[in-house]
Amino acid sequence: MKRPKLKKASKRMTCHKRYKIQKKVREHRKKVRKEAKKRVHRKPKKDVGIPNAAPFKEDILREAEQRKQRREELKNQQKLERQKVLGKKRKQEANKDASKENKHEKKSTSKPKANSELEMDKNSKKFFCKELKRVIEASDVLLEVLDARDPLGCRCPQVEQLVSQSDGGKPLLLVLNKIDLIPKENLEKWLHYLNQELPTVAFKSAMQKKDRTVGKCVAKKGAAYIDLSRASLCFGGDCLLKLLQEYSVVKEKIIQVGIVGFPNVGKSSVVNSLKDARVCNVGPMRGLTKDMQIVLVDKQIRMLDSPSIIVAPSSSLHALALRSTTDIDSGNLLGSVDSILKHCSKQQIMMYYNIPDYRNSLEFLTLLAQKRGMLKKGGVPDTEGAAKLVLCDWTGAKMSCYSQPPASWTPSPHLSAEALAAVKQAFNFDDLEEDNKNTVKAIKTPNRASSIAFQSSGFTDGIIDDTELPEEVLEKKSIEMSEDVEGFSENEDEDEMESEEENNRMTSSKTLSVELEAKNEEWGKLPTGKQLIIEAGDLDDAYDFNTDYI
User: pTM of this prediction?
Assistant: First the structure.
């Protein structure tokens, strides 16, 4: 049986395809030939030279060698000239550097203090003290801003003493800021207590920049309506401007009003509220204002915003946690939170943060971190972040808490009777009380049951002179001054006088701190290791169902 023949595949194709292939082949071969020409190594043409039959061959060769020698000599001469020019430039630069160093040495020996001030860091505590003294010296009236939640803890006796002892007896006013965070009864008690010593203005800063569209915005949450325009209102601003304008009329000049206070009390917010515009930077960060800022509020009033007062390192841990100009180190966060918890009631803390019972501050931070979802890798609670959150709550402008004023009023040891009498004569207390009453009626305050009560630690000591700063802060200055001590033998008498004045200031501040500690003990300061005991009647209906505690 024959096998069937298998047909081969036909090689026929369309003309279009065949012509296309032929064209590609031609282009490829052309490219190959072109590259082959480039790769060909052509031998360089050999110099034939002068033929032997040429006439005067020896003369021609001699002239060629002479031309070659002249070219080499010219090159060497140009090289030597370039070396001479470079040597002169190096000598001139060396002489200039030497003259600059001599001038710098003369300036450093003649004015070492000026150089140290120019190189001073704006974030240093020494610079803060310098700017604070500048504001106090340039001001006609001083405003000490206090946090209404802890007015005594925001008062600095060293600053108040410096203002009362300044030239001309500058008047001092107390501005009780953040009055919308304490109950109305507590606010009235504090105004009555503080007005017995210094004129006190009830104040609430505007939290937002005023805008036409803010009043129309109404946020809806469930069945309740929250009016956002209320945050842009300022209470007590008219009363404060009225007092300052009356004082400027009496003095018949443009007055400069300095604002001082501890961090996060609202100094820059007071300036923005009086100006009705955002002219100073504000925020929850501590020590945001670095230097003195001048703001024109009115034709007769000029405001001077100042950096924060530096807390003395010898202050209590509670004062350092709330009044420090810088953020607390990670190693001291637990101790700072522990000091705050010891001054409060455990039941109110548990209800505010909505956490169960805890035994110590570490367990409190662990429960709070778990409640807020602050977890690290592996589900470990972020206690450090929770501690920063607690400190931010206590220094910010959201948490409602209050402290009770002392039962009986006693005059402060750092203020003299003459200075208090001069302040009372400069301002009208009757009109001030009426304006404060109107402000208290108009402001909306939280319920006492939904606020946290804590025990105040009394006055907070501050640092005004850089000589009172710790050695670590002044280490650079001591090194600079030790190198230039030999060149100042002529000014020894002046230095001795300045040292005597500084010693007198140090002794006066030490005696003042001792008197203040005695006064704080009379007010019933809590011992360490104990918590504030609050009557059970104050905790009735403590949970406010209109407030979201999460």
Answer: 0.62
